[in-house]
Structures are given as structure tokens and as C-alpha cells.
Amino acid sequence: MPAPVNTFKARLKAGDTQIGLWVGLGDPSVAELAAGCGFDWLVIDGEHGPNGLRDVLAQLRAVGGKSHPVVRVRDDNRAEIKQMLDIGAQTLLVPMIESGAQAREVVRSVLYPPAGVRGVGAALARASDYNGVPDYLETANNEVCLILQVENMAGIDALDDILAVDGVDGVFVGPADLAADMGHLGQPGAPEVQALVNDTLSRIHGAGVAAGILTSDRRLAKGYADMGVEFLAVGSDVGVLRAGLTGLRDAFRQRR
User: Fold this and answer.
1) pTM of the complete model beyond 0.90
2) Contact 226, 242 (CB under 8 A)
3) Does the annotation count 48 as an active-site position?
4) Which is the catalytic residue, given 48, 68, 184, 205?
């Protein structure tokens, strides 16, 4: 019996646009609720969200098979990447990639030898159903999906080298950090930023690699979808909850 099929990875290869949601609150009940709402994929955010290893594990269990969980790790730390894979994450998003050499090392981190250097301990891990998947070691590499996040000018300048690395399944453009690096802190919708974002997405597609991005701006999201962005996050649990609560509050404040 092989490792579970990564349907998210398969759909990236097919060129489908998959709609996702950022999950940053670090709560299994929130992740479970979001997973039941019909999103194709959810990001469990270990970079900016309050998530440690066991927090991510609890959310993976809560999401189950209702949506595809994408785990964003803090950085390209090899030991943390290994642990996230062992607890059952099949798709990882690694932030702040700035060179082809860095991209190659991340690829090595997610793959078992001889293709990579992922430590072999799956017999103890959830990823192999606690050694219930006898062919896990032989098949896991094929089902791991690696997305690299490019979010500053160093990453943009190195984009061609990053895209040329074998084993990179997708490149995610981080507009917030990119805007800050361009001198537009807090303004990812600025025309100069969006011009570079759109050019970057086109370059990713031109290299035959899946492209992704996050925005809560519905106009921008529609434009990205029209461009054929394969993994498009259209909001976050924090943003949706805050907007809903303040909208409800304002509706009744007006009645006073």
C-alpha cells in the first residue's frame, strides 16, 4: 500500500484553480469549521500564526479529508520540515526563498534519500499511519508537494534560478512583504506592487510551474483567477471573523 495520493498536487499539475483560505488562529475548531465550508485547501500558518508542532498536528486531525491542508513552516529549517512531514503534512509552504541554492536545499529537506536528506523515522509517525502503510518510504517522495514563497526583491531577482530547481511544485508570491520591500509598507494593492506581482505570476506560469497568491481584495482575486493562478487564497479566518463581527455590531449600532 503506497502513501496517500496528494490530490492538491495532482490538481496543480492539471492546471486547475484551487481556492483556499488562510488559517492563522491556531485553533483546531476553527480549522475544522473552515474545512467544512468547501475550500479546496487551507493554510495552517506556522510562520505568523501561534502554531507549534502539536498545534499543527491537532489542526491536521481536525481538517481530516474535508479540505487539503497546506502547512506553512516558519522558515527553511530542515529539522522542522522533517517533523511537519512526519506528523502528516504532505504539502509544505516555505517562506522567504531568495536563491536557487536555498530552493535546492529545501527540496533536499522534503525528500528521502537518495533524492534528498529527509530523516527516516516514519515507522513512528502519523504520516505512515504509524507504520500501517508498508510502502510509505518508497512512495512518499512522489506525494510530497513543495511550494516556495517569493516575497522580496532578492527572491524576485533570483526567480529564474528558483524556477529551474527540480522538485519545486509551485511558487507563491507574498504581496505583503514584497510591498514592504518595495517601499509600500501595508499597501500590497499599490499599482507598482501589483505590476510586479502580475509580472511575477506570468513568469512562474511561463516556466511551467504552478503559481499562487493570497489576497482578501475580491477584485484582485478575480483578476488572479482570470490569469489562471492555480492556488488562490481569498481570505483568512482572522479577516472573515473580524469582518463578520464588526458588520454585525455596526448593523445594530445604527438602530440606536
Assistant:
1) yes
2) no
3) yes
4) 48
